[in-house]
Write a structure and sequence with these properties.
Structural class: alpha+beta
Helix content: 25-40%
Number of strands: 4
Strand order of the largest sheet: 1-2
Radius of gyration: 18 Å
Distance between the termini: 38 Å
Order of helices and strands: HEEEHHHE
């Protein structure tokens, strides 16, 4: 929020300038037109928010997803969902690429709005996710 405000924008109802639901994006150029600011300092930037985590023997996978997933599930909910599908449930035996793809499909389906009229927009946004299994 501090970066957005320093760049002359505001956050209202969790949206940049009351419109955009995210603050990092490759497009949305109308939020990146301040020639006095560096790319990373614009109202919306493609400069990533990076968090370093140690990967150890207990790390089973990394889940990367866009805002459409995170609008519906917390990070922990998404991880728990995938753990259930991949390691405790449907695909708990030998996992193939097909198993991984099907589990990801189940995650995306689970995040989609069942009833657009009552979803308040949740589950109606773009949804992309990638899982990287760590062996």
């Amino acid at each position: 929020m501090a970066r957005i405000q320093r760049a002359g924008g505001f956050v209202e109802d969790g949206r940049v300038n009351g419109m955009l639901a995210l603050s990092r994006a490759l497009g949305d150029f109308e939020y990146k037109n301040n020639s006095q600011l560096a790319v990373k300092d614009q109202v919306v930037t493609c400069f990533p928010d990076v968090k370093v985590e140690q990967i150890d023997a207990s790390t089973q996978f990394i889940l990367l997803a866009c805002d459409g997933i995170w609008d519906v599930k917390t990070s922990q909910q998404a991880i728990d969902f995938m753990m259930q599908k991949l390691y405790k449930g449907t695909y708990s035996n030998a996992r193939s690429q097909t198993d991984m793809e099907q589990a990801m499909g189940l995650l995306l389906d689970d995040c989609c709005a069942r009833d657009i009229a009552s979803s308040q927009g949740l589950g109606c946004d773009n949804m992309t996710a990638v899982i990287v299994e760590i062996n």
